[in-house]
Amino acid sequence: MKFWGAAALIASLIPPCVCAKTDFPPDKTSIIPSSPPTIIPGFAPIPDAARQAVPAKTISQIPSSAPTIDPSWQSRDKQKKRVHDFFRLFGWIRRNATIHEPQMPSAIRKIQRVLRVPETGEYNERMERVMSRPRCGTEAAYNESEATIPDGGNRKRFVLWGPKWNRNPITYRFINYTNDLPENDQRSLISNAFAQWTQYLPLKISPTPTNNARADIHIRFVPLGPSEPAYAYTNMIADGTSLSSGLINITFNDDYAWDDTRLFNFTAVHEIGHALGLSHSKVEDAIMWPYYEGLIRPMNPDDIAAVHSLYGWRDPRWSMIDNKISGSKFLIEVSTPFSDQSLTPPSPLDGLYQMRSSGQVLSYNPTSKSWTTIDSNKDTVQIAGAAGSVFQRHSDGSVFRYTGSGQSWTYIGPASDNVLDIVASAGDQVYQRRKDGWIARWTGSGSSWTTIEQPRNSRQIAVTDSRILWNLLSNGDLVRSQWPHNVGWTIVDINSLNLAIAVGGNEFYKLQSDNIVVWLDSVLYYWKVIDDEGDVVSIYAVGIFLYARRKDGSVWRYTGTPGVWEMLDDKRESEVVIGDRRGGVWEMVGGGDVLRLVS
């Protein structure tokens, strides 16, 4: 893992304009600032579609939506307690130390930087909503560098406890169980929680035999009081650089209702992270973020990078799933957004697809580790897919949609030499980029398409989960159109350096011609350089994940912290990298070999 500094992209704040004309002003200034400004009035933050929503029918003491805040949150004493609790969770304050009133604004600003809200130094409702949630009770040891240096810049978000396990395999056992769930269910939940971590690690973790009272990690349920906000804590005891076998206890607060399997699942995965040697993360979407809001979180790149930094990778790291003899030309991955999976299961068409130079289209079965031909047509020149839908474009511009059965495809778009390429997005949407400067969107019925006026000379389009249509023009200008694309275009950036764009969920990234990668903070609404090494040649985003391929062919995954990336592969012949929303990664190397990231 490398740590890189991140410099801000110079820009000035200009009021965005909604525009239907075809040419933009020649001056190259950015519409979005490069540092956190005052929030633009009326700007609606883009929702985080990378998280999995909670089914509405689930009964839980943890609400699935933001509750009304207790008016008592304005009590200064309560606010001070919240601030002290936050500082202890991250090791920013010595045990039994106190933050006095004159230092309170500075302490609040430090927390606001982590929460990505305006740094006013005044405790507000956003802080209360986060810091009043059930939280982990594991307090980090005092970390002077984290405590004394203002958070931000090029510092990593995850924090390592220091010691790790120096043995393999590792064992665990239950000391007792809660009465809220059947014991078999608890054993299954804990086993699955350990698997969330071991899928990335060269470690084997298993329960001890029932007649064996010795184990490395113990799990127990103890009443801590109904008013105690901590749902669990982990004793992290070490002997030098190694965690101490038999002295690592995961304690669940038995005054919580553990029949809420969402809370049980989140708590187990989080506390096991502590038992493996991780402290709390400052990434709100990470498993190791200490507060729980009632959502099922996927493993975050920050969590993955943290455990890899402790234990390394599983071996082998990559596995070949197709060889260059096949002549792979195009590789795509189709996956359903997590927000959809809470209501319906993933689509049977989710998965990995490739198009070979002969026009043959194949889907990959990870269980049988085999490829199945779903079409063989020499006229096929492109495949695209998203959210359970797969499409192909022929050389004459016609478009077809896969039915999911054998080699059956449905004709949905007429032949036209005006079609440049197609882009698929969530919600069964597919768009055409056209030579005449217009974009066409399939209506979802028959072969009917709706045209969307656009500025001339489009270089690339991309569509978010919430169906925001981004358009990169050949002169570098960036414009976007809100669904249903009938009110013109908003100018977002006027910058001749813009070279390529990528969207993951609702996050937006751009690659500049100087090989710098920039992210749009859609909460504070400003540009942020997240890689300034100057050697990135392509980017790919999906869900919460962002990948970069560098000039030397190496493949890297963004951890969520500007300047901090984790190297996945160092092959010089790497040509394409793609991934799914669960963290699966595939790459195509020179000649057509297709490899899967095993760890």
TrEMBL record:
GO cellular component terms listed in the entry, alphabetical order: extracellular matrix
Binding positions (Ca(2+) 2): 216
Transmembrane segments: none
Cofactor requirement: Ca(2+); Zn(2+)
Annotated positions binding Zn(2+): 136, 270, 274, 280, 288
GO MF terms, alphabetically ordered: metalloendopeptidase activity; zinc ion binding
Domain Peptidase metallopeptidase, chain residue ranges per copy: 161-313
Cofactor annotation comment: Can bind about 5 Ca(2+) ions per subunit.
Annotated signal peptide: 1-20
Cited Pfam families: Peptidase_M10
Residues that coordinate or bind Ca(2+) 1: 180, 254
Keyword terms, alphabetized: Calcium, Hydrolase, Metal-binding, Metalloprotease, Protease, Signal, Zinc
PANTHER family: MATRIX METALLOPROTEINASE (PTHR10201), MATRIX METALLOPROTEINASE-21 (PTHR10201:SF323)
Name of the protein in question: Peptidase metallopeptidase domain-containing protein
